[in-house]
User: What shape does this take?
Amino acid sequence: MFRHPNYSNLLFFRIFADEQRLLHFSTTRGGGVSRGEFRSLNLGNYSDDDPLNIFENRSIVARKFYKEADDLITPHQTHGNRVLLIDADFLNLSNTDKIEKLYGFDASVTQEKGHFLCVTTADCVPLLLFDRKNGAIGAIHAGWKGTSGRIVDKTLVEMKKNFGTETRDVLAAIGPAIGVDSYEVGKEVEEEFKKNGFDLDKSTSYRHQLSGKLHIDLKEINRQELIRLGVPKRQIEKTKYCTFGNSRLFFSARRQSLHTGRMLTGIMLR
Assistant: This one.
């Protein structure tokens, strides 16, 4: 990832840098109007922040791309693995109906132009997908529940069903999330991954020598899942940024509690 000199509070993926059909971004926590634990660029629609501050923060981001806050389509995430198709029928809904429709999804896909598909995160993994052949995109929120529930697989299946996507044509970006050294998990998490067929080997996890607790690497698990599904390694970018360890740049639910702000990661066809 890199920081553009004209957009100091946004991060961008190198893998998308030469794609003229795309706009994308991943926010940091700076440059907004929120206060306290939400300071300052909190973009979580469903956080406990003042709604007027959230709307202004979303407008700040949208204006950088000459868009409106409502052009940042963001599901009401529930740590599941459901994928929403954003089509012309969705875009023609009233704002009230859109909000209702967005509930309970942690990923979205589209071929429609001019609207960002977004996810909010504060330790979970944001992923962006671009099908270069068919001109389709996807945005995924992958916490441990979504990751273990194969949300990446389900999103690519949805893209194939609706757009004819083949994984060999996909570019994928994995954004800032909690790093393996900071992500200690309990037995129930370990058992859920194993139940769903994940091999938590040395490349994706380790057990702390003193605590005996398991640490897992959510970003690497999702990278390996993309590769397993047929996305070429060279077409995947995984950032090294850890949200927990960098309080200046990122919100972190584990560091600050769930009562904190959210970053936004988005992708748009133009």
Helices lie at 51-63, 88-91, 95-101, 144-148, 151-163, 187-195, 218-228, 253-256. Residues 51-63 form the longest helix (13 residues).
